[in-house]
């Protein structure tokens, strides 16, 4: 690219957008899959999978070859200096989000960062400031709450927005996993507060809270919460180590609309593998969802005659459903990984249109504030914490 | 009663109707439960549980005391002679149905007979002739296809009759049990053609076929069928004995409307306990049902916008649903046994109103003709059998 | 009865036990059904349905006739004076429980009282004192947490007691109904704190909490809770009236074992009719239950090879299952009402054996203490409340 | 490639395998997706997506660009002449299968052909002869019954092979769709016997029958069947046109083992989108499956104590499950399209190992014989047809 007008502005799209991705573990694999396939299903701006960045030169080179990236690199800073890179997709661990994202935005790269936005509220705030400044220069950013792109949840949001469930009274949101159910399962960086920030709270409650905000288009005013670690010591490489993050978390959230949401998340819910369960109860109807059956949406229309009311299983696989016209004929279900394909599609489309994609960092920050309030309440024996809404906050709003 | 006007006419209802029941095994227990409770929930003509009849004097006396019958007796013929008996409920084994029912009808007693109507077509025809003659004298009769009184199935029939599923194209009916899955399960009279007539065919395919006719209000024109016995020898009291009835049966039925029904029944469907599954596919919608969840009806309305179509689980427990206003508040499910409570209620109500209850013996005979055709086809290597509809047949019609 | 030895001791069982029931509304109808049928299915001490008590002479007489009671009466005090009454079943509203129960116990009558034990903690304590004193004289008492007698939940308790789920980590208990979802649904005594004590909390959270204690055999040490009324004014007979009880309640309970339970109950969960949902997550397995499918128990055995692990739907309808040998062959499901039949059976059996039935009033009081703590915490913005366990408390233990 | 030894033998693998695909409609899109992604998840021989073949030059060029093919072409014969093409994947309509496949095999190309193998039995036999001859020269071939690669069904086959369900007694196989439920849905080549061969029979009963053979490792000895067209005239481009294929089909199959399978397929089963339902009932257990929830397998182990038996929902998403170690962490479900990814993986692995992949054309022919027998029986009013097993037949056997 030769025609950059000024530092920190996006490049002119006279050539395919160049994409760099940082990180090649679980999320890197999932995002790569999305980049590799998005253009085979959706009309998106032309782009190239330029470079995959990781610390181990050999491993990152192998991953790049396997996942469809033209090159690999070990220094993310040098990648940010490249003129042929327009987009940076950050799949590195949470403690690196702020540093990389802010640098990338300042370098004029559009940024997609995995959720949660950051490990701490301070980092999230700094990132949001950087994103706001960059946005003014036409540099876009987005936080990767990929479950907004589950077609069934996008449909749920449509139904709620169209008043099909009426005024929402309460929401039940749970995210249940069991990969720590075995008390002998070993210590990892994910169980250390230094590296992970928090446990189930940041990892999966963040998704549950984001869904509440996304589905209802609402914001949180008060929080009461609790955290608990059932297994406090786990085998480490050199003997027993202390687990310093939560295994499970509970909260009730007061929403600005007057609705109340309960949140319950766990990594020790034996038998629940990846079950994000959402229930939205309104005056006119109800929405049910479970991520383990992500192609289905439960819906009850309470305005129908009582005689024929019932929870309906909508197989969200019709061309009329969000994102689905790109895929297969009806009834041919899609997998979890395509939440990322849809995310990349929406991210690229927004960049192509010169618009700000959603969820913005502000929305990631809103989730982060709730997470912090849960921690604060938990430390205060569940006493209710008021959330001060930042003045001029970008309202929580989805695609 | 002193004022009987002529032999074989029903008694004048100047006193509670006197009820006699014959048989006190499984069906006797279930019917007794219905007689004991029906008046506590429904407004029915006043009656008394007069006498329970069985072969073993001691056992029948104990059963009478336990199940709420005032007296017991061992000779059903003597009971038919009693003036204080107005109703005879026949729960004896199938091979006794014809003899008792015809005698009772000739004695002017209203008759309820368990399904299937009889063990043979000839018996069923004789019973139907007797019922027709008795009906002309005001003596009523009914065959106990109790599943017509499952509220969910009564609702299904309403929805179909109201054209909510449109023209029906095909029906899938299965009745799966597993009480013979163990090849070492012993020989019983139910596995002997002499005593049982047939196996799964008469016992449970009869229910499945009756439901097809009941739900659609249709009749059968052609049958192709198959029977099979997986375990042909079972341990008897004095060594191995031959099983002479079917373990499972399959059939396709052509219906007068142009619809096609498949029937599949089994007593060796491991893990299926009492699963009568019904699926009715029409131009406008679909009905699903499973007896193991008998308080629920599945319904899909294909006239709804595609985006929100889906199978709906109607919890058939609302006051608006058939029979349910008599029971508990919504969501408090009822048990299998109340299919009989509803049956007795409808039977008594019809008698009180001087009307013919449904299903009439003609309807039992219609099922019997299909069963016979399945046997005939099975013996002819599944070749299709035409059913001749009797001229002037009472159309198959439900409550 | 002529031979009463001393005031306040139970009568000698030289004749059938005489039963009086107070109240003939929803619970009166349900209990009557149980009394009318229990002896037809179970071997219990001989008893007679002597007298039904209610305020309106005409209505109670009609109810007595319909539900199988020999007589009716309008003054419960006079009934307590009758020597032929041995058992008093209290189905009157909660504000009458304490007065009637204490008087009955003092009169030497065995007492069954509907749940929750009382409207206030003070009443519950007084009742428990009375029960303790009476028990010493051989006079028994029981509180009617009927869901302990759902066969599936009795099985769940067995499996947990047999260590099949291992050490329990957390429990999710919800009781969701929707009969108040319509904001125009009228005011009733149940929505007035004076008469009802509380709303969803006392009515249905009491069941959820009792199940946690019953299933785990555990006790509560700390509570954080919240109450909310979504519709604060409803149409009364003479214009709008204030709703003074909760529509919904949330709580987290710390248990003595170290487990944590979440409780969520609602009367405005649109589409949920009577859904008591229980999930028990242990180190070795998991239990799932939903009252709308009360014949089923979900069970996951995490000690099985991973390849074949999964939630299992046990159709709790086998002779091997609790209470089920009395009923029908496998797969013939029973209804909600038989939770009471089983309750009466266990109550009568204990009386016959001269033993104290469970749940004792102490167990009802334990639930009441939790309810009170939820209210206290809710009033203190969800701050955690410590529960002081009474010294010498009867441990929470089930049948 | 320079070193071809003789005509009709496979090329030496001194360079990446060159792949050509013929057809770019639904199946072409699905197969392309598999080729594009297989190497990102599985270790397979190195290959290149060389050329996509279609009739319309412009459209096929666009499809090639979109789906990851280096070039496009319009003449499949010329592609067969290319030395750099080693593999031909035939996704063209059924009437072209025989001609292309035989030519490709004769040209020494490994061939994957979509199911069903052919439109007629004669074509299928010729193809099988060609495949057998080619196999002797080291040229491999496979028919694309992709559902063999659903992980849940691969697991089902394992469990059956390990005797976990015991001797199988009966199988219920249904494949229900509804894309023709609307009687006004227009005429297409798929509804014309000339072009499509048959309707639901060849299209979806072929899958159901293949699964019976695959899961049980069994063969068919006798068939009784029925075909029906519910909507016989549909709107064509120039007015009404006759539908000359079946909308639905029914059959019972006798298997060599003594088991009996029922088959029922439909394109007018309103509300059923893509529901291949399989139920395998054995002496020791049962398997259940539904393609609309393809990440789940139902399993009942009848050797467990009765008290705890129940249908188990295995979420087939563990590393221990077939194909799953390549994908995401547990509980992150995969989509329908990866049945093809697994198919291509197994096909490539077999080629790399110089082994014959399964299902071989012989297995496709076995299905075809059953389809032909269903048609023959249907034409003979469901009379039973004997199947002669070809001498020296390759036994039906899976991966």
From TrEMBL, chains A, B, C, D:
Residues 155-287 form the GFO/IDH/MocA-like oxidoreductase domain. It comes from the Bacteria. Residues 18-136 form the Gfo/Idh/MocA-like oxidoreductase N-terminal domain. GO terms for molecular function: nucleotide binding; oxidoreductase activity. Keywords: NAD, Oxidoreductase. The keyword NAD applies. This is Putative oxidoreductase.
């Amino acid at each position: 690219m030769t025609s950059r007008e000024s530092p920190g502005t996006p490049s002119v799209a006279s050539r395919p957008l160049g994409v760099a991705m940082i990180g090649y573990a679980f999320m890197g694999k999932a995002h790569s899959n999305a980049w590799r396939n998005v253009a085979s299903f959706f009309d998106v701006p032309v782009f190239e999978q330029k470079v995959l960045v990781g610390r181990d030169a050999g491993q990152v080179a192998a991953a790049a070859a396997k996942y469809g990236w033209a090159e690999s690199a070990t220094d993310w800073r040098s990648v940010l200096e490249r003129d042929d890179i327009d987009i940076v997709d950050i799949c590195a661990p949470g403690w690196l989000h702020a540093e990389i994202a802010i640098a990338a935005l300042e370098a004029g790269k559009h940024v997609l960062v995995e959720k949660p936005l950051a490990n701490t509220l301070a980092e999230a705030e700094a990132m949001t400031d950087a994103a706001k400044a960059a946005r003014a220069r036409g540099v876009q950013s987005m936080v990767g709450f990929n479950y907004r792109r589950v077609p069934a949840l996008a449909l749920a949001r449509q139904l709620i927005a169209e008043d099909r469930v009426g005024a929402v009274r309460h929401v039940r949101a749970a995210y249940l996993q069991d990969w720590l159910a075995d008390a002998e399962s070993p210590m990892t960086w994910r169980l250390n507060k230094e590296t992970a920030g928090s446990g189930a709270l940041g990892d999966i409650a963040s998704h549950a809270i984001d869904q509440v905000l996304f589905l209802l288009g609402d914001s949180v005013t008060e929080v009461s919460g609790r955290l608990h670690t059932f297994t406090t010591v786990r085998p480490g490489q050199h003997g027993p180590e202390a687990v310093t993050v939560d295994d499970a978390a509970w909260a009730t959230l007061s929403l600005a609309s007057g609705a109340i949401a309960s949140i319950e998340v766990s990594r020790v819910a034996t038998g629940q593998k990846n079950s994000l369960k959402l229930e939205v109860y309104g005056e006119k109807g109800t929405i049910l969802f479970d991520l383990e059956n992500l192609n289905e949406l439960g819906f009850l229309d309470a305005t129908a005659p009582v005689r024929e009311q019932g929870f309906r299983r909508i197989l969200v696989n019709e061309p009329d459903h969000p994102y689905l016209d790109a895929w297969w004929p009806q009834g041919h279900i899609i997998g979890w990984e395509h939440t990322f394909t849809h995310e990349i599609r929406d991210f690229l489309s927004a960049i192509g249109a010169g618009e700000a994609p959603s969820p913005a960092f502000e929305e990631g920050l809103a989730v982060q504030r709730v997470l912090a309030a849960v921690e604060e309440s938990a430390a205060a024996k569940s006493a209710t914490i008021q959330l001060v809404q930042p003045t001029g906050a970008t309202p929580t709003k989805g695609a």
